[in-house]
Design a protein that fits this description.
The chain is of the alpha+beta class. About 25% of the residues lie in helices and about 25% in strands. The chain starts with a helix and ends in a 16-residue tail after the last helix. About 30% of the residues are buried.
Length: about 250
């Protein structure tokens, strides 16, 4: 009898170890596929993102809907394919984008870009005015630091295939003025014709919580909860022997 109980305990322990290892590997692959960390180099996205910051990039969202205006994206740089750039989407396929000095117009709507600091406003490419329609599967991007960004004003559009994902979360260093989820900028483009669904749900304050990105970041927590629940359900139950066992002393 003891040998049978001993065998059952060993079997249960081995099964739990195997299940834990398999679930850990699967979770690692899911997280690796859905999220990637990047290091910010340079000041082209000031004041939204700072030099040397570490961010999480959500590679999950764009499996369900296309990139939208206002998204900050990481992509393989068209002028330098060995490097990754980070910029903000200003115009999507089918939009007419016009850049005249520091004035940016999308489909006839002049943008009031609240994410640009007045001290960073400018256009080093002012001698190259832009007025054209964004081709299919291409995106027009610019850095928030308009006087110090090498972007679509200089080298053209970003192909959809070059986009790695959407910048979603700043996690290092702590104590900066932009830790946490990046604010949504959809309000800047609210008057522009909307080609598709927005990438989040905006509340009364105009702040969008990107639910798809949040789910990706919460995946490790869900894994932990699942593991704890699984272990609790496997705890042996103590059978009641008398009617009095369930009563308080």
């Amino acid at each position: 009898m003891n040998s049978e109980l001993d065998f059952e305990k060993r079997y249960r322990l081995l099964r739990e170890i195997i299940e834990t290892v398999v679930l850990t590997i699967l979770m690692f692959l899911v997280i690796r596929f859905a999220v990637q960390n990047f290091n910010i180099e340079g000041t082209s996205m000031e004041p939204t993102l700072h030099n040397t910051e570490l961010i999480l990039v959500d590679k999950w969202t764009y499996l369900f809907h296309p990139p939208t205006r206002g998204d900050i994206i990481v992509f393989v740089a068209p002028p330098q394919p060995t490097q990754d750039y980070i910029k903000r989407i200003i115009a999507v396929p089918g939009d007419k984008i016009t850049v005249d000095g520091t004035t940016v117009t999308v489909d006839g709507v002049t943008l009031k870009e609240t994410y640009i600091a007045p001290s960073d406003q400018g256009n080093p490419y002012a001698g190259k005015p832009i007025s054209e329609v964004v081709p299919p599967n291409d995106y027009f991007v610019m850095g928030d630091n308009r006087r110090g960004s090498y972007d679509s004003r200089a080298w053209g559009f970003v192909p959809r295939k070059n986009i790695i994902g959407r910048a979603a979360f700043v996690y290092w260093p702590l104590g900066e003025d932009n830790n946490g989820f990046l604010p949504n900028a959809s309000a800047v483009f609210a008057s522009v014709h909307q080609p598709g669904a927005a990438s989040g749900i905006r509340n009364d304050n105009g702040v969008t919580m990107a639910l798809d990105g949040m789910l990706v970041l919460l995946t490790p927590c869900l894994f932990f909860v699942f593991q704890q629940r699984r272990l609790l359900t496997r705890k042996p139950k103590i059978p009641a022997t008398t009617k009095h066992d369930s009563k308080s002393p």
